[in-house]
């Protein structure tokens, strides 16, 4: 068995094709019953070693969210034309990525493990404590470059804001990867 492994490794390293490897093993060990099953993944298939959430899905979430820019903020609204912050995030993720999120921002904040702001990627959810009552009260979708899109009660619409602004910098608490 050890000889087979050494032979197979040497043949693979020297860039011998798969058919040559099978033939060599059969001929060297006189095993004509040897069957080697080779499964080939289609080029567009999911690679289990890759990030389970492709940038394409994250881009789709951001692009879809941007189509709602300017939509009116209405407390308790979940779309398709008016939103509150968590209703907006839930609507976007359901339509763009088929991800069902909890309804309110405090529940969305506990939906997945927290990630630091240094590890945020576009499409992650960002959470804020805006009421001063010690609980999560606002959510948005991170777009990269310190920008996030959200349904703002203060702005009365879906808009893009900066995490670097004094208000959001002060009230930001954490982020989650909703795809993890």
Automatic annotation (TrEMBL):
Pfam short name (any one): NLPC_P60
Keywords, in A-Z order: Hydrolase, Protease, Signal, Thiol protease
InterPro entries: NLP_P60_dom, Papain-like_cys_pep_sf, Peptidase_C40
NlpC/P60 domain boundaries: 55-180
Gene Ontology MF: a single term: cysteine-type peptidase activity
Signal peptide stretch: 1-19
Protein name: C40 family peptidase
């Amino acid at each position: 068995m050890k000889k087979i492994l050494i032979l197979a490794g040497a043949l693979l390293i020297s860039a011998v094709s798969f058919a040559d490897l099978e033939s060599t093993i059969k001929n060297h060990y006189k095993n004509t019953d040897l069957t080697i099953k080779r499964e080939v993944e289609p080029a567009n298939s999911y690679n289990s070693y890759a990030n389970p959430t492709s940038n394409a899905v994250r881009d789709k979430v951001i692009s879809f969210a941007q189509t709602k820019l300017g939509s009116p903020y209405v407390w308790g609204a979940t779309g398709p034309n008016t939103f509150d912050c968590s209703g907006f995030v839930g609507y976007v993720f359901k339509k763009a990525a088929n991800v069902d999120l909890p309804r309110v921002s405090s529940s969305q904040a506990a939906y997945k493990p927290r990630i630091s702001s240094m590890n945020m990627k576009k499409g992650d959810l960002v959470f804020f404590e805006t009421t001063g009552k010690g609980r999560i009260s606002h959510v948005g979708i991170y777009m990269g470059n310190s920008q996030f899109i959200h349904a703002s009660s203060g702005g009365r619409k879906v808009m893009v804001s900066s995490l670097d602004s004094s208000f959001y910098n002060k009230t930001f608490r954490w982020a989650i990867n909703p795809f993890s």
